Structures are given as structure tokens and as C-alpha cells.
Amino acid sequence: MNFQDGSLYPENQEKLVITAAPYGPEWMPEDFPEDIAVSMKDQVQKAVDCYNAGATVLHVHVREPNGHGSKRLSRFNELLDGIRNRVPKMILQVGGSISFAPENEGEVAKWLSDDTRHLLAELLPAPDQVTIAINTNQMNVVEQMLPRDVEGTSLGTPAGLHAYREMTIPAGPAWVEEHIRRLSANGIQTHFQLANITQLETVERMMRRGVANVPLVLTWVAIGGGFDQPNLYNLANFVRATPDGAVLTLETSMLNVLPVNMMAIALGLHVRCGIEDNIWTQDRKAKLGSIKQIEQLVRIARECSREVADGAEARRIYRIGEFYASAEETLARNGFAPSLKPRQLRAA
Description:
Keywords: Metal-binding, Transferase, Zinc
CATH topology: TIM Barrel
Protein name: 3-keto-5-aminohexanoate cleavage protein
Shape: globular
Order of helices and strands: EHEHEHEEHHEHEHEHEHEHHH
CATH class: Alpha Beta
Helix content: 25-40%
GO molecular function, one term: metal ion binding
Organism: Ramlibacter agri
Largest sheet: 8 strands, parallel, barrel
Number of strands: 10
Cofactor: Zn(2+)
């Protein structure tokens, strides 16, 4: 992305899109009972509360009645239907890391099978987006966390730490291309969750080959453990590599969330918050629920005179419903340079 004179002026920036991740599948309900919704009614109400607080994108996971993350697609359908009826303008983004929680104590957190994850393209009602990882990769979500971040929670137990420390992302090329094809065929937008520049380069190559004719709507996921560390240098490099036509959200974990989101607000990028990413105030004196986190970002954005997008504006910014007919159109719409063509030799 290019930053010209005036790029930091709010009148030259898109309105802020706030993504809320309030379901936090890595936590157990007893880790934060005041904020973790368990019943279907409460999970739907959490989405309504996030929207009313200012979030227009909802990162969706779902729990079973016993509080564990659900692996049942029928349970996702039930939650999506309930949210659609209550907040139809909200962008529903299903987490493609469907229920990676370990089933039994001591097990490693695993994603569902490739075939089962493809069925996310068949959810009804269809979500607006499904997130997708690129390139099989380590996803040690606890690597950069400090003992104080997980003290007194299920992640602070030996079993919890082991489960999430050893997690990997299965995202090989054949599966990724087929998943994007299925999502696009059903009118569902692919939201790219990227760990570093190398994964962004893979997406670009896919677009140049014509196997990902979609908007480049993406999140830089800086959580360490196989992903970028959330520091200024990694952020600047990733932003610089991202083309001007892309829509970029920043994501990180624990006490990194607020400062990274403040940088996103200033730079004209978009933000994500919620208990899936962090459960603490910056001084760790109390836990901070998803609604309070959204309200905090709304206040900061207003102090910067950057307006927060409403549901209709977020859909336009996120280019919901857009798909492209060719690699050439995809590259142009996303701000990439055209693909190289062989030189045409003139006749002597």
C-alpha cells in the first residue's frame, strides 16, 4: 500500500470496519463466565450486542450446550440463522479453523478433515465470508503469550498449553484452490487469514493463475508461533507488500491487540477485537469483554476523527458479493501489476 501526502488524514481514509471475535473457542466458559456465551440464545444475543456497539463484521464460532466448541455444521446453521434474523446487516464471517479445540484432555488441538471443512461452503443460511489459511503452517497460538496472559485459565494448564502449542494449519495448495472454488460458486467471499508475506505472495500467484478470482480481503494475523510477531517492522513490510486495492485488517493477541489496533486506525486500515484475541485490560487488573473492547475502539476512532462504518458501508468496503471473471480483472481490481507477457519480436 502506498502512503502519499494526506494518507493519514481521516477525510482521505475509508470508514473504520470493526471485526468482533466474541466466541473465543480456545477458552472454556469458566475462564470468563461473565462474557462467554454458551446457550444458543446468548450466542445470538452476543452478536446483536457486538453490532449495536459498533462492530459490523462478526467472526463466528459456535459452542455446544456443554460449553465446548461445536464440530456440528448444523449447529453453525442454527447460529447463522438466528443472527441473520436479528442483525441482517452484519457481515457474518465463519472461522475456517472450525472447532480446533481438543476433544479430550491431553490431546492436540486439531482442525476438522479437509472434506468436512469444504462443507463450510454449504452452510445455510450462507455466511458472507469464510476465513481461509494459506500454506500448511505451524499455529502455536500460545508461543508469544506470557504466563500472566493465561494464569488461572484453561490455557494455563499443562494440557491446555500442550494442545494449542502443537497445533498446525492444514492448508495445502490443492485444498485451498478447491475451497475457494466452492465458496465462490456459492456466493461466499474468501477472507484470507495470512501469517506473513510469503503467504501473501502465494495468494498473488493464485490470482495470476486465475484460480482465485476474488477481492483481496485479508487479515494480517500477527500472533507468533509460525506467524509474524506483532512489531512495527513486520507490520510495515506486510502493509508495503499489500496492493492498494486490498482491504486489510490487523489481528494479534493479548495485550498486543490494543496498540496494533490503534496503529490500524491511524493508518486507515481496519481492526479486530474480542475475547478470541484478548481477555485483559492493558494493566491486567481485570478482564475485558468483547463489547467493552469494541466500545474502546469506537472511542479511539472518534478521537482520531475517523468514522466507524455502518453495516451497509462495511459491505461496500469489504466488496461483499464481488467476484471476477478473469485473472486480468482480478489483478486490476486488487491493485496488482498486470502479469508479464512475452516480448513481441518485430519482423525485420
